[in-house]
Amino acid sequence: MSMNPVNSTTIEALGYDEATGKLLVKFKTGTIYEYLGVPHYVYQAVIEAGSVGKAFNSEVKGIYDYLKIN
Known about the structure:
Elements: E1 4-5, E2 11-17, E3 22-27, E4 32-35, H1 40-48, H2 52-59, E5 66-68
Antiparallel strand pairs: 1-2, 2-3, 3-4, 4-5
Helix pairs in contact: 1-2
């Protein structure tokens, strides 16, 4: 899955696999998390938001299960 750079002070890039609902989030710290079961509309809302970080915090963080990749 490819990662796409985003304009954010905390998030460097996002990747999404529509077939599995996996959302990859690479933070500016270099840490990558994989969020599971994220609907496509949630991913779209985050990448199209005026503030990607705020949208991530309200739409994904604390809602979906995740794995720390590195």
